[in-house]
Amino acid sequence: MLTYEQALKAILDNCQPLSSEIVTLANSLRRVIASPIKASFDLPQFNNSAVDGFGVLVEDLIGATPEKPVSLTVIGEMTAGAASSASSKSTRINRGQCIRILTGAPVPGDVEAVVMKEACQKLEAGQKLDAGQKQDCQAETIAVSTSTRIGENIRLQGEEIEAGATVLQPGTLINPPVLGLIATLGISELLVYRTPRVAVIATGDELIEPGQPLAEGQIYNSNSYALVAALNALGVTEVQRFHAKDNREETTKVLQEALSYGDIVISAGGVSVGEYDFIKDVCEEQGVETIFWRIAIKPGKPVYFGVNRSSMQNKLVFGLPGNPVSALVTFNLFVKPAIARLQGGTVSRKHFQAKVARNLKKKA
Predict the structure, then answer these.
(1) Per the count of CB atoms within 10 A, which of 25, 214, 258, 259 is most buried?
(2) Are strands 315-320 and 304-308 parallel, antiparallel or unpaired?
(3) Angstrom distance (rounded) from CA 186 to CA 181
(4) Nearest Cα to 198, choosing from 66, 353, 331?
C-alpha cells in the first residue's frame, strides 16, 4: 500500500491545469489567475495626502511644540477628486501659509509635508498664543503644535506600483484583497483557469433522499450533500449528483454518465472489498486506468484513484470510503489538492506538531 505522500504525489502527477477563460471581475472570486496582471498606470497616480491635515513648508515649523505652537494662515483647500494638475498650478504657498488637505487629495508641488489635523488648532479672531500676541484672524489661521519633515504624510506617485510592473503572477488565487487590488488597477475582465466540473456519485441500495420517511434498513444520502458542499466551499459550482444502486449494470450506467459530464468523478462508497463494491472494476471496464487502490492511512484505507485518458484532458476518478467522516477526510486529503492543481493554483500543506494528551493503544 502507498503512503499518504506517495498517493498524493501520484494524484498531482496526473493533474494538469484546465483551459483558461475570461471572467468579469465580479465573478472572479476564488478563481486562479491564468496570465500576468500588470499595472497600466502608477499607483498612486499622483502625490496625495495620507491623512486629513494641512500642507506646510517644513521650515515654518522648526521648533514648533505644544508649548510653543506656530501660527499659519490657511489660503485654500484640496479635496479628494480634485485635479492634481490644476492644483499644482493654482495653489501656491509661501512662508507662513498652509493649505487644508483631505485624505487622498492631490498635494500641490510647493507643499513639503502634511501635518495631521490632530496637531492643529483653529484660532479665533483675537485669540492669543502663548507668546501673548494677538493674531489677525480675518483670514483663517491655525496653530500647529509639532514640527515635521520633508515628505511626511505624503504618498508619492508610483511608490506602491509603477506603470508596467507585474502586480500578480499566474497561479494567484483571487481572494477578497486580491480582487480589490485588481479593481484598483481598473481591470474589469481577466483571464482565469477554468473551474472543474465534478460528478458526485453516492452508492448503495439503502440510500434515500432527506425529507422522505425512512423504511427499515434505509439511511439518508448525506455523503453527496456533504461533498457538494465541500466543493462549493472551494468555489466549484458546476456539480451534478448521481446515485448508483448496488448492482453492476446501474453502476456502469451511472459511471458512464458521470464520466461524460465531469472533469472529476467522485464516488462515495463501493470501493472496498465487499460483494457489492463495483466501483473499481467498473472504472477499469470503462477505460479508467487504476493508479492506486488502498492507502496506508486511517480513516481512508480503501481510497481509489484512476485516470481516464480518452480525452485531451485527463478525467480524474476518486473512489472515497462510504463512511461520512472518512469521505470528507479523504476529500480534503486528496480531492482538494487535485482541484487546486487543475485550477492552476499551488498545493500548500500546513505542518504542525501536537502532543498526545493520553496513552494510545494500537492493534499489531
Answers:
(1) 258
(2) antiparallel
(3) 9
(4) 331
Q: What is the DSSP letter of 26?
A: G
Chain segment 210-262, per-residue pLDDT in tens: 898 988 888 888 999 999 999 999 999 999 999 888 888 888 999 999 999 99
Phi, psi dihedrals of residue 219, rounded to the nearest 5° = -135, 160
3-state secondary structure 199-264: EEEEECCCEECCCCCCCCCCEECCHHHHHHHHHHHCCCCCEEEEEECCCHHHHHHHHHHHHHHCCE
Report the distance separating Cα 160 and Cα 171, nearest Å. 22
- Bridge partner residues of 56 (DSSP): 113
Q: What percent of the chain has pLDDT over 70?
A: 92
pTM for this model (two decimals):
0.76
The cell for 78 is 484640496
- Of the candidates 190, 142, 147, 322, the one whose C-alpha atom is nearest the C-alpha of residue 246 is 322
What is the tens place of the pLDDT at every residue in 10-42?
A: 999 999 999 999 999 999 999 999 999 999 999
Whether the CA torsion 28, 30, 32, 37 is positive or negative: it is positive
Residue that the C-alpha cell 434498513 belongs to: 217
- Alpha-helical runs (H) found in the chain: 4-13, 84-90, 176-184, 223-233, 248-261, 279-285, 324-330, 336-342
Distance CA 303, CA 296 (A): 10
User: Under DSSP, is residue 25 helix (H, G, I), strand (E, B) or coil?
Assistant: helix
DSSP state of 187: -
Residues recorded for the chain: 364
Decide: 73 and 96 in contact? Cβ < 8 Å. yes
From residue 146, give the alpha-carbon distance in Å to each of 55, 66, 109, 265, 345.
13, 7, 22, 67, 50
**Cell 476518486 identifies what position?**
318
DSSP 164: T
Work out the burial of residue 272: count CB atoms within 10 Å of its CB; fewer than 13 is exposed, 13-18 middle, 19 or more buried.
middle
Cα 175 to chain centroid distance, Å, stands at 2
Cell 496637531, residue located: 119
Which residue is listed with cell 515628505?
A: 151
